[in-house]
């Protein structure tokens, strides 16, 4: 049960969305933690704010939320090879002439 929950399906649009969100959230966390650390004059508070922002980013971007699979890809059916071994020697020989 855990493996099916962890597998998750994300389409290509969802991958782009999570990539964009993760970069924006990490950038925002970096700026916010720097400002807060500078204001409080504390490196530990800066690291705490950054860690909280990083944890929020992981919670938003890592699970396969249903919103990340709104554009599923429909794959074409497989084409069967004419030769049993899967080689295309006949086509190559005809092209060499």
TrEMBL record:
The chain crosses the membrane at residues 21-39, 46-68. One of its GO terms (cellular component) is signal peptidase complex. It is found in: Endoplasmic reticulum membrane. Coiled coil: none annotated. GO terms for biological process: protein targeting to ER; signal peptide processing. It is a multi-pass membrane protein. Keywords: Endoplasmic reticulum, Membrane, Transmembrane, Transmembrane helix. Component of the signal peptidase complex (SPC) which catalyzes the cleavage of N-terminal signal sequences from nascent proteins as they are translocated into the lumen of the endoplasmic reticulum. Dispensable for SPC enzymatic activity. Belongs to the SPCS1 family. This is Signal peptidase complex subunit 1. It comes from Thamnocephalis sphaerospora.
